[in-house]
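MODEL INPUT / OUTPUT PAIR
PAIR INDEX: 1
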Amino acid sequence: MWNTALRFMTYDKAKLTGILCGIVISIFLIGAQLGILNNILDMSLGIVKGNKQYVYAVDKKSTSSTSLVNVDKRVGNELQSIPGVAKVYPVVVAGGTTKSRSGGTAMAQIIGVQYPEMAGAPELYTQETVLNNLQNEGAVIIDAGDVGNMENIKMGEHFTLNDKRVFVSGMSVNNAGLGQYNIITTVERARQLTGFSPNSVSAFLIKSTSADTAAINEVVKEINKTIPSVKAYTGEAFSEVSIEYVKTASGIVANFYLLIGFSLLTGIIIVGLTMFSSVNDHIRDYGTIKAIGGSNFLIAKLILRQCLIYALMGFVASLALLYGLQAAMAAVNQVIIYSPALLTGLFLVTFAISLIGNIFSMRKIFKLEPVQIFRM
C-alpha cells in the first residue's frame, strides 16, 4: 500500500513539487513567526528572565516585570523577617538614554543589582566577562546582541548613559531588551545614573531557605498575608503574569497570530488546489480500483498514506530551513528556540494541511461510480 501511495505521488513530479512547496512555505512561515514571537515574549520578561528561582515582591499596582511601580525600601526589612526567607535582594529598574561616539542616541533600561548575588541580572555572559569588575566606578554590562547597534563597542570602551560617562565591563548573552538596550550595573550606580529615589526600589527578589516548591509557595502565601503593601509571586507565576500582560496590552501578539493564520490558510489552499488537480489526473486510476472491488475505505487509506508521506517530506524540509534561520539569527547574537512542544505542534499542523488539502479530493473520489470511467 505504501509503495502504491508513493507511485501515485511520483507519477506527476511537477504536482509533487507544488504540493511540497506549499507545505514547506506554510510551515516555515508559521515556525519562523512562532519562534520570533517566543523570542519577543522572552525579551519582555525583564528581570524575571533567568531568575525564576526567586520569589518576587512588587507593588500591587505593578502589572508585569517591565511595568514596575516603586516600593518603599523599608519593606525589605519586613520581608527579611518572614519565616522561610533566607535573603532579600533589592533591584532598581529605570529608564535611560545612551549616546554613542558618533552622537546617536537610543533608549535603555538600566537594571541595578547587588553584587555578588546578581539577583535580577542575566544568567549567561561572554567568556571575557568578569563580574567582579562591575564594582569598578562607571562599570556597566551590556548585551552582546546590542554590540552592533552600539557601533561595535568593545570591552573597556566608554559611552554616555544619561549624560554620564560609563564603560563596558562585561557583556551578557541572550539578554537583549525589547526595543531598548538592557544595561546592568549596581543598585547604587543605577540610582546615580537615573536619579532614582534612595528610599525606593523597583522590586525585591527573595531567596528562600528551601528550594522545595511547597516551601516557596508557603513563603509567597505568608508575604501576601503579612505585608499588604506588596504582592508576592513565585518566579514562574510572575513570568506568566508578565507574558500575559504583553499579550493583552500589545498588538504585537495579535499581529503575529494573524500572520500565522494567513500562512496556514495559504498552505491549505495551495495544497488543496494542487491535490485536486492531481486527483483529476488520476481519476481513471481511482475509478479502476473501485471497478475491481476496491472500497472507499481502501482508497481513503491510500490517500491518508499519501498525506503522511507529504507531511514527513514537507516537515523535514521545513525543519532544515527553520534551523538555518536559527543559525543565521545566532550569528547576530539573536536567539530563536524551537521547543519540543513547538516542533510537535508544527508536525501536526503539517499533517493537518496535507489532510485538509485532500478532503475535497477524497469527496470527489467517494462520489465516483465505477461505470463513469468508461465515459471518460
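PAIR INDEX: 2
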Amino acid sequence: MNQWIESQLRFMVLSDLREHIPDEYFESETERFNLNESFDKRGFLSKELRWGYLAGDLGRRLCFSNEILMSAKQKSAAEVLMNLGMYVAAKAAHEACDKIQKLVAEKEADEGNAGEVARQLQTKQLPVLEKNVTGSLKQYIRYLSNEEAKPFVPLLSDKDQIELGFKKSIKNEVLQWSLKKLDYIFGLLLAALFAYFGLK
C-alpha cells in the first residue's frame, strides 16, 4: 500500500472518529513496543508497531461496541481503523523481522525464526490484511464526497471503482455508444419511411 495514501487514510478516519478517541491515546508510551535500536535507530518501526496495535484495538472496540453512539460513517471509519491498524502493525513487524534476519546474516549468527516470520508476514498475513483494509474502505468511501474519496480510489479494484462510480466500464461505454448509434440509425430509418410514405 502506498505510504502517502496510507497516511491520508489514517488522518481521514481519525478525523471522523475524533470524538471517540481518548486524549493523547496515540502518544502513550508503551515499553512493549520499543524495538531494539540495532535495527530501529530512529524508532520508526517502534512507533508504527505501537500506532498499529493501538489503532487496531481502538477500531475493534468502536466497531463492535453497541454502547457507543456513532453514525454509520463513524462505524465504517472504525472498521477501517481496525483493519488499517492491524495492517500497519504487521507491516512494522515484517520490516523488523527482515532487518533482524539481515543483521544476523551479516554476523553469521543463528537468526532463530525471524526469516520465516518475515516470509509468512510477506506472503500470507500482509496480503490478507491489505485486502481487509480495502474491503472496509469500499464501505467507508460511500460516506465520503468525491473530493474526499479521491486519494483512496487507487486502493480499490477496478470492479469496485466501477461499482462505486469512480470508473466507467468499457463494456458500458461500448453499450452506450452502440445505443446512441442505434438511436441515430433508427431516426434515419423513420425519417426515410416518413419521406417515402409521405410522398405517395
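PAIR 2 NOTE: The mean pLDDT is 82.
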